[in-house]
């Protein structure tokens, strides 16, 4: 993507006035979610603000937490350290429960239940997504984010919204709309060229 | 395209409106429908230009440049820019020496992220009640909770009013605890000239776009008093493969906004003073109390109700509050509750799954308590007797709008009869009997 495109997207979002991720009227985060679900053929996307956050979201979505074991074959040192910090034991002989990808990969050609897609390489700051067909996994991953899948209007009233998905520890893994808007255009351009 | 221009200017207030029929009973609203929107954050042409300039710069330099500029503004020794306020609190805690299983004392009244950041550090939040006047952490309540395993105390400068930092520093010193500030509401707030974020051993601060000092989306910053604490946080994140880096887009927007922060601070202070004076005159309402030497940043403006002063002392205070809330909203004043139950009564702290299988709570079962709202009587009393103005007073609100807010409070305060009728008609639940809300 050239500088002109980035400039145009940034100006457009700034002009809309909506730069906050928990704003009801934000269109940029849902837009990037749509691009990613379309490109991957997966039903749900959980956007986050880094690669480590996306791994955390995927594991939480899959119900893997502290004290559990999972596959770790092929993971690099930062991912192994991160799993250890989460209290998840990684078995080197077993593949991880998610496919670890970047924006440069062809997402339509991946045969995995869970996709972790690192978008940081697009150049707009740390950004990533967890993609899945499983609605329950998506809901659990969203709940890992404070305010996840809710907004300033509804403000996450616990009983009203799916008390069966009770969050444990939560992080602010929310992605910024400005970053999402730039990432989306870059992905679209990349797909075209 | 959304334009920042409202469809019409707000009319100037007039005396007659004060005695007109309440909007809830069919009268005209003090702030007319269609003229209630406030813009936040304000995005100027130089913000746009500065962001475009940043696309030509090295992303790491944009983030570092922002962090240095803001660190200097705050007067903190060391800074670590992060992806969010929650991340900054996590970094501040580990930098200050918090280890897995340690206890960290936090107020029961705050945003949930304060306590979740403690859990993120694999430590246990221990909840203390608040001061009945400032609504910040009560140092005496905190003192009663100190144990052998307490490692840090993390007050919140709630709504922008600095906590009692002198008492907290003394307590921390006496017991060898780290003093970590949650300065997420308190940009530019100060005690005796020292800006929030530079007072404790470490501090975390949210810079998300709904705060007084907004970045371009999500962001935060941790401050440290020593190079050691800063290095410990940086090393911790690297060692554990945690990516908490701030986006250069958020940073470039923030660097541009920082130029105008003193202007917005001044507008908020002016509006708070004007509204405060008007509230004092109503009897029913009182403005936030600001101890001498403290500068309040007014990220939120919490108004206390005094039903006795309006001859309503025989009614339950929470019911008076609910009735007043309804009447104010009908007048076009966007009052809110902002929290309705103590944080330890939110689901993540009643279930305590943590990272899974109860970690880190299982590391220190002695520190864990099954709380009920009544464990925090001061917090409950505050939740039952106060209302909050948030972003509607945060943006550089026009003079005529603040005057209208003031008039709406005055108009409602003149009608204890209408308040009494509503309380009689409706069976209002107590705040904490409703579903727990984050904001
Ligand atoms: C008191 C307090 N602490 C921490 C946070 C967390 O900050 P962030 O949302 O940027 O992660 C917030 C607000 O959002 C807050 O109000």
From TrEMBL, chain A:
InterPro entries tied to this protein: PyrdxlP-dep_Trfase_major (IPR015421)
Domain of life per record: Bacteria
Protein name: DegT/DnrJ/EryC1/StrS aminotransferase
UniProtKB/TrEMBL annotation, chain B:
Swiss-Prot/TrEMBL cofactor(s): pyridoxal 5'-phosphate
Single Gene Ontology MF annotation: pyridoxal phosphate binding
Keyword Transferase: yes
UniProt cross-references to InterPro entries, sorted A to Z: DegT/StrS_aminotransferase, PyrdxlP-dep_Trfase, PyrdxlP-dep_Trfase_major, PyrdxlP-dep_Trfase_small
Keyword field: Aminotransferase, Pyridoxal phosphate, Transferase
Any one GO BP annotation for this protein: polysaccharide biosynthetic process
One Pfam family this sequence matches: DegT_DnrJ_EryC1
Family: Belongs to the DegT/DnrJ/EryC1 family.
Protein name: Pyridoxal phosphate-dependent aminotransferase
Lineage: Bacteria, Bacillati, Actinomycetota, Actinomycetes, Micromonosporales
């Amino acid at each position: 993507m050239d500088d002109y495109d980035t400039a145009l997207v940034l100006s457009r979002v700034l002009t809309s006035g909506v730069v906050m991720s928990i704003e009801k009227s934000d269109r940029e985060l849902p837009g990037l979610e749509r691009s990613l679900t379309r490109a991957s053929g997966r039903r749900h996307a959980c956007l986050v603000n880094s690669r480590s956050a996306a791994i955390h979201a995927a594991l939480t979505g899959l119900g893997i937490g502290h004290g559990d074991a999972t596959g770790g074959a092929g993971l690099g040192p930062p991912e192994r350290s991160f799993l250890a910090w989460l209290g998840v034991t990684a078995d080197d002989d077993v593949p991880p429960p998610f496919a670890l990808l970047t924006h440069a990969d062809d997402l339509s050609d991946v045969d995995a239940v869970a996709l972790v897609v690192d978008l940081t390489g697009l150049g707009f700051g740390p950004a990533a997504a967890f993609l899945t067909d499983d609605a329950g996994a998506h809901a659990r991953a969203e709940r890992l984010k404070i305010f996840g899948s809710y907004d300033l209007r509804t403000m996450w009233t616990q009983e009203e919204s799916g008390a069966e998905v009770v969050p444990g520890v939560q992080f602010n893994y929310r992605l910024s709309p400005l970053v999402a808007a730039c990432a989306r255009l870059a992905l679209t351009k990349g797909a075209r060229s | 395209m959304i334009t920042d221009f409202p469809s019409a200017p707000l009319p100037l207030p007039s005396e007659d409106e004060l005695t007109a029929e309440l909007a809830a009973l069919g009268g005209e609203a003090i702030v007319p429908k269609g003229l209630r929107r406030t813009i936040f954050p304000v995005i100027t042409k130089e913000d746009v230009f500065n962001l475009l300039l940043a696309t030509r710069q090295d992303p790491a330099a944009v983030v570092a440049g922002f962090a240095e500029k803001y660190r200097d503004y705050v007067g903190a020794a060391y800074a670590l820019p992060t992806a969010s306020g929650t991340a900054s609190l996590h970094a501040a805690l580990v930098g200050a020496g918090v280890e897995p299983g340690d206890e960290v004392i936090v107020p029961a009244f705050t945003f949930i992220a304060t306590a979740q950041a403690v859990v993120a550090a694999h430590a246990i939040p221990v909840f203390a009640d608040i001061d009945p006047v400032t609504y910040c952490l009560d140092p005496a309540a905190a003192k009663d909770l100190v144990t052998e395993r307490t490692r840090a105390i993390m007050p919140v400068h709630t709504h922008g009013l600095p906590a009692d930092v002198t008492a907290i520093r003394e307590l921390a010193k006496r017991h060898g605890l780290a003093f970590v500030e949650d300065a997420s509401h308190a940009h530019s707030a100060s005690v005796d000239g020292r800006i929030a974020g530079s007072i404790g051993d470490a501090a975390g601060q949210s810079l998300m776009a709904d705060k007084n000092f907004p970045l371009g989306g999500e962001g935060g910053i941790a401050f440290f008093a020593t190079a050691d604490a800063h290095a410990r946080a940086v090393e911790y994140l690297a060692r554990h493969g945690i990516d908490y880096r701030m986006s250069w887009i958020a940073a470039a927007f923030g660097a541009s906004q920082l130029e105008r922060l003193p202007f917005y601070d001044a507008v908020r202070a002016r509006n708070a003073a004007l509204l405060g004076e008007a509230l004092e005159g109503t009897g029913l309402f009182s403005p936030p109390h600001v101890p001498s030497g403290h500068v309040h940043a007014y990220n939120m403006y919490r108004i206390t109700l005094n039903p006795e002063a309006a001859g309503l002392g025989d009614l339950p205070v929470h019911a008076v509050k609910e009735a007043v809330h309804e009447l104010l909203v009908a007048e076009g004043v966007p009052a809110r509750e902002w929290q309705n139950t103590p944080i330890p009564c939110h689901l993540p702290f009643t279930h305590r799954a943590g990272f899974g299988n109860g970690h880190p709570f299982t590391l220190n079962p002695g520190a864990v308590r099954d709380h009920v709202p009544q464990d925090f009587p001061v917090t409950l009393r505050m939740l039952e007797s106060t209302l909050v103005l948030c972003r509607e007073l945060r943006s550089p609100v026009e003079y005529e709008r603040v005057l209208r807010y003031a008039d709406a409070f005055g108009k409602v305060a003149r009608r204890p009869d209408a308040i009494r009728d509503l309380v009689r008609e409706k069976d209002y639940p107590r705040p904490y009997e409703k579903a727990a809300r984050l904001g």
